[in-house]
Structures are given as C-alpha cells and as structure tokens.
Specification:
Blueprint: H1 18-44, H2 54-64, H3 78-146
Helix pairs in contact: 2-3
C-alpha cells in the first residue's frame, strides 16, 4: 500500500450515481404521494367552521353524499397497473351501482336535514313569539293587579 494513490470515495450525492438516482426517484415518488394525500384531504376535509351550526353540518352531509367510485390504477410496477385496470373493469359496474345507492342515501339525509332545520326555525320563531306574548300578558296582569 505504500505509494498507492488514494482516491476519494464515490460521490453518492451525484445525480449520476445509481444510489443517488434511486434516492431522487424515491423522493419524487414521495412528493407525488404527499401531493395526492393533500389533494384527497382537501376533497374530504370538512367544509364547515367551528360554529357547529346546523347549516354547516348539512353542507358537510351534502358534500359527503358524492361518492367517487373511480378506483385509482396508478402503480410503479406495470403488471400491477394492468391487474388494477382489469379489476376496475370487472368491479366497476357494481361500484357504480353501490355508489349511486350511497349517494341517494346522502341526498335523502340532506333533504331530511333541510326539513328539520326549517321546522326548528319555525318552532324557534313560534317560541320567541310565545315568550313575547307571555311577557306582554304578565305586564297586563301586573298592571291590573296594581289598580
């Protein structure tokens, strides 16, 4: 070893190095996955404020009533993609049928929510009017008792 020339270790950070290329590919895949997850979270996130109002909850039910039955077929392995496409075609008709039923249930639930909100508003209005009328009657009774 005396007199041997020492070479620096291979630069694993170089884009031309196979390990670096795999790391960069994996990072790109991770970035795409994170972007897909964020997009899904945006689609599924509650479209309501923290106020807890019935209208906001109803809007959330209406939003959730839409069912996405289009299964993803992306895959790193080409064979897996073909398998996913085949399964999607075989099961697609049933998923659409099932999705329509779930969506119909969601729409019916939203319609029930609208009816309940309208009735609650009517009852609250009636209750407020009754309270006001009762206060007026109390005032009249007190006035009559003073005379």
């Amino acid at each position: 070893m005396i007199g041997a020339t020492l070479r620096p270790p291979p630069d694993r950070g170089s884009a031309t190095h196979p390990a670096a290329a795999r790391v960069n590919q994996r990072r790109a895949e991770d970035d795409r996955y994170v972007a897909e997850v964020r997009a899904a979270m945006d689609r599924l996130s509650a479209r309501t404020t923290d106020s807890g109002e019935a209208e906001a909850a109803l809007a959330l039910v209406e939003h959730a009533a839409a069912v996405d039955v289009d299964a993803p077929v992306a895959s790193v392995a080409p064979a897996a993609r073909y398998l996913k496409v085949g399964v999607k075609r075989l099961a697609g008709w049933y998923l659409r049928y099932l999705g329509e039923q779930v969506a119909d249930l969601g729409k019916a639930t939203a319609e029930l929510g609208v009816a309940l909100i309208e009735r609650t508003d009517r009852l609250e209005g009636t209750s407020a009017a009754t309270i006001a009328e009762l206060a007026a009657l109390r005032a009249r009774v007190e006035d009559l008792e003073r005379r």
